[in-house]
Structure formats: structure tokens, C-alpha cells
């Protein structure tokens, strides 16, 4: 199976799962009005999980891109960075979409926007590493 078909199948499966899970996630992310500044709410938790996943994707993508093409292993790391960045971006988008307030309200909107940026960086690094691995295979 080619990588293009594998990524298309993964994206279709992810979109299908998210289409079914988005209403439940939006319902779960709704916060009560009496949230303090130090309370770990569901929105903040998911933003934190996505940031950690996105940072792992940035790290994997950076290491894969910096690795010499002759040592191999670039393709697997590139795909992992792409998937981690995509997942980070999707979770960040869900958190931002479910937020009813601005910064400091407990909805995790600042972390959600940070997820969107870090996920995009991870996907760019993974895409560059994947293009580099394709170029060096032939």
C-alpha cells in the first residue's frame, strides 16, 4: 500500500470518527460558570494533552529532518510527526470551537490556539521530512 493511500485512509477514518465524536466532545468541554484560575477543567486538560502531543510531533519531525538521509528511518518518523501534528490541530480546533469565553475563563482557548500553531509546525516538519525521504529513496 502506498503512503498516499495510507494517509488518505487514515484521514478518512479520523474524519469519520471525529464526525461522530464531535458532538460528545463539545458537550464534555462545556464548563460551569464557577471556575477558578487554578482549576484543571476539561478544556484545559485537552489543550494540555494536545500541546504535549504536538511537541512530540515537532521533536520527532525535527529529529527526522535533521537526520542524514543515508541512515534511513526518515519515512516512519515523518509519518509519525504528520499524524501527531494532525491530531494536535484537530484537538485544538475542537477546544477552540467548544469555548464559550475568552482567556482565563477555564475553557482552554489559549491552549487551543497554541495547539493549532504547534500542530501546524509539526505537520510542516513532518511533510518536509517525508518529501526529503521520498527524494532520497529513488
Topology of this protein?
Elements: H1 3-29, H2 42-66, H3 74-98, H4 109-137
Helix pairs in contact: 1-3, 2-3, 2-4, 3-4
Can you count the helices?
4
Instruction: Spell out the helices and strands N to C.
Output: HHHH
Percent of residues in β-strands: under 5%
* Overall pLDDT level: 76
The main sheet comes to: none
Spatial separation of the terminal alpha carbons = 17 Å
- Given helix and strand content, the structural type is mainly alpha
Signal peptide: 1-26
Keywords: Membrane, Signal, Transmembrane, Transmembrane helix
InterPro entries: DUF6223
Transmembrane segments: 45-66, 78-99, 105-131
Task: Explain what the structure shows.
With 138 residues, the chain is an all-alpha fold. It has a domain at 42-137. 77% of the residues lie in helices and 0% in strands. The chain contains 4 helices and no strands. It is elongated. The mean pLDDT is 76. Pfam families: DUF6223. Residues 1-26 form the signal peptide. InterPro entries: DUF6223 (IPR045770). The chain crosses the membrane at residues 45-66, 78-99, 105-131. Keywords: Membrane, Signal, Transmembrane, Transmembrane helix.
Amino acid at each position: 500500500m502506498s503512503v498516499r493511500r495510507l494517509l488518505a485512509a487514515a484521514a478518512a477514518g479520523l474524519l469519520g470518527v471525529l464526525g461522530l465524536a464531535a458532538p460528545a466532545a463539545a458537550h464534555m468541554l462545556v464548563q460551569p460558570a464557577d471556575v477558578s484560575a487554578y482549576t484543571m477543567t476539561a478544556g484545559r486538560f485537552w489543550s494540555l494533552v494536545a500541546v504535549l502531543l504536538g511537541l512530540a510531533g515537532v521533536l520527532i519531525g525535527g529529529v527526522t529532518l535533521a537526520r542524514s538521509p543515508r541512515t534511513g528511518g526518515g519515512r516512519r518518523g515523518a509519518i509519525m510527526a504528520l499524524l501527531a501534528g494532525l491530531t494536535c490541530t484537530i484537538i485544538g480546533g475542537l477546544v477552540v470551537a467548544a469555548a464559550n469565553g475568552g482567556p482565563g475563563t477555564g475553557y482552554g482557548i489559549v491552549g487551543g490556539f497554541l495547539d493549532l500553531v504547534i500542530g501546524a509546525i509539526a505537520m510542516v516538519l513532518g511533510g518536509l521530512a517525508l518529501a526529503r525521504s521520498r527524494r532520497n529513496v529513488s
